[in-house]
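I'll show a record.
***
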Amino acid sequence: MVYQKGEIRAGRLSLFIFILIFIIFISLFRLQVLKGSYYYELSEKNRLRVLYLEPPRGKILDRKGRTIAASRLSFNCTVIPREAKSTIHETIRVISPVLKVDELRLEESFKKSKAGAFQSVILAEDISLAEAITIEEMLDSMPGVLIETRPQREYPYRDSAAHLLGYTGPMTDQEKEAIDPLEYRPTDWVGRDGVEKFYENYLHGRAGGIQMEVNSRGRFMRSLGVREPRDGRNVELTVDAELQKFTQDLLRNKKGSVIVMELGEGGILAMNSAPSFDSNLFASTRGRKEVGRYLQAVHSPMMNRGIRGQFPPGSIFKMITALAGLENGKLKSTASFHCPGFLLVGGKRFNCWDHSGHGAQRLTEALAHSCDVYFYLTGISAGSESIYSKAVEFGFSQKSGIDLPGEGIGFVPNREWKKKKKNQAWYDGDTANLAIGQGFLQVTPLQALVMTAALATNGDRLAPHVLHKIDGVKVSERHGVRVPMTPAYLEAVKKGLDAAVNTETGTGRLARYPGVRVAGKTGTSQSGQPEDHAWFVGYAPAEKPKVAMVVLIEHGGHGGVAAASVAHEIFGFLKKENYL
């Protein structure tokens, strides 16, 4: 009986052992056969890590090789979320006093991370070398924490070239979904405006990386493979950085724009807009927290007024009216009109800016004195459609095609537009306003410059550009279209522009500079506020033009004072630097 009971116990024990062995066998089969590849991959990930090597963004240089945008080496304290998750609170408690950053802020940075399990995310950006060394010495006790280097954008000319160069910033969620994984990773920054955005494909390099084996503490054991990063390509512009800075200083405490173009190929020598902003603040997450004041400022410092601002041009448009009248035979350059200080059009009084009147005026004197009555009469005689057509020929109401993002198109009104949009007839009063650059007419400073350059080059409407070379190889060349003009009519207009600057009664005489003959035209356009916009367009040397420019001072008052005096200083710089 006892023997039978022992057999029963032994049998039960054997069955239990058999079941246990069977369960272990099934588990091993599942782990090694069914899930073998999965756990093998997981074990590899446990000991393998990819350290990304971000390439330096290409430099942006001026026409003389001076650096106007580059990348410097910065240090970031980063973490790999999967490795650091269990110890992150203790880690943050340790590094918070080192970085002098509140623990709560570091916690928030970690929680906001959306990187993959084995990608590092930034905990603290652009830390000092001393802070990086201190943390590096403690890494053994902080799993998943890394000190990584990153090229950070730097703009030595600060606000002087901000609108021209633009800035860089992190990608949006939509951009992250559309990126080429071979060229970008989700944490990369890209060009956000200006040259940085337009030439992103050249400036942005290709990220590299090191695949390495680490121990259980996450420390480096050996390198398993390296993909070298590809640096971004250097882009050389047509601009002169010192002219850019000089001009921006002239616009300090003003609103407006200055653009200077060389007339050989149409390269932009300077493009300034005021007020401006410091692109360096956008180069890091820390700095970007301070840019709210730019975005909320009432004077819109982020807007490039040179290519996006649209304003009534005032009297700088009178050359278009003159050419329209000359070309359709309604105006003779020797014809004289009397200016009593006003003109009645449709029973309404249209004043000349000089209420006392200019007296008898021919084309040369009318341009030199900017006589409104002369151009009221010329415009009405030529007809609004002739003015419209001539304006379009000179590049108004269309983009110039400059290699910068966000160019405005401006607007030239005509009869068809007014009928369609306003359901109103076109009157002679509309033509009178259009003839002197007022009314519905809107132009950008760049369009005004393109017009001026076409006059200076006897009809070549040059395509403005800012790119000169890529990695030292010249890529810029002269492009443009020919504006049909009768040479004698063009010379009559250019004679008036010469007189506007070089006679004692010319409105642009303040733009003169000793040793160089300047030709140009001033403009004073109504702004809807007490102070008018001040314009000057011109070129030099008048006898063989090399450079053209436009100056706009918003609410600057009289163009012959505010804008012409700025032009005087710029012509002086150009003369001293042998551009003239």
DSSP finds 22 helices and 23 strands in the chain.
